[in-house]
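Q: How would the structure tokens look for this protein?
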Amino acid sequence: MVMRSLDETTPTPDPTAVERRRLVHLCAWLTKDADAAEDLAQETLLEAWRHESALRDPRKRPQWLAGIARNVCLRWGQRRGRERVLLARLHAGQGNPAPMDEEPATDAFAPEVELERDELADLLDRALALLPPTTRDVLVARYVEEAPHVAIAARLRLSEGAVKVRLHRGRLALQRVLATELRQEAAAYGLRATGAAGWRETRIWCPICGERRLVGDFDTAAGRLLLRCPGCYPTRADGFNSRTHDPALFAGVKGYKPAFSRVLAAANEYFGAAMATRAAPCLHCGREMPLREGSPTSLEPWRRTPFALHVTCDRCRATTDCCLVGLAYGLPEARRFWRRHPRIRTLPIRRVEYGGVAALVITVESVTERATLDVIAARDTFRPLDVHGAPGA
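A: Here is the predicted structure in token form.
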């Protein structure tokens, strides 16, 4: 190690630069958003400069700056939350905007949508930037600042009725931007015009190979979610998930990620109960049918696997099936792991002995981090026995 002494020729560190670096680290820690930390640190220093007279003891300047940074980050988080609510409101009734004197209901806004909250907020920022200033100002005042109609009317010197008209037109303008200039980005979240169809690239990495993003076709009205990996299924029209579901399953959901999460949770609930009784109701006609192992014979040979369960109705011939990997991903622990590690891949299923019982191990690993999850299931019934490596375990 080389030791060097400072002399008069050594440049003295700029106190402002040192403070700024500390604030960037603090803001990144508070917000968990390294990209926003730079701007938040700059905003903190600007606010400190404006209120310099409030600092009575210069020796406590670091603590004073940290307090300002916390308040700046808190306001930033609140703005992001309000922007997410605005986007949810705008698309809760997509294709059928709310009347001018009513605010779109948000009760149907599903918790799963939080999976994409930061990405959706970024999309909203970009969409608002493309609107005329007068339109943008009234939308931000109402939905981001949550100002009442009367306050907005007083600020803009308009009547309350005129404000409501501008809000209505602003919502329509924002929807048009998302359907035109930002159509591709909005489609990645399932935000598309009513009746639109076709395969689109999503933001979901294939959980099997971890190399490609899934492409999908999501129609909430029909209750249809189709997903496939271009790498795993390059020439097939359907993929590892291409089933028609009850439209109620996707109530309040617009994005591919939360929709897929609901499908996995529904499969876990359906087959979890079926594994306990070895029977399940047909999802088409309701008739009780036995639970069978393996893939249904209606599937193409290349898609069949012994590591699957299915219910085939003798009356209406409807089939509901799920492979063992899909059942594993439907477990709450696996879904939490996937949320924490968006880019994952699945290793080949292994046969083991677990507690004196013949078992199968489904291992999921992160592509970008050193993290794995093992789901252990009974070999004869596929019933989950244990989960290792789950977040919080």
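Residues 333-388 form one domain.

Residues 1-13, 92-116, 193-197 have pLDDT under 50 and may be disordered.

Upvote if useful.
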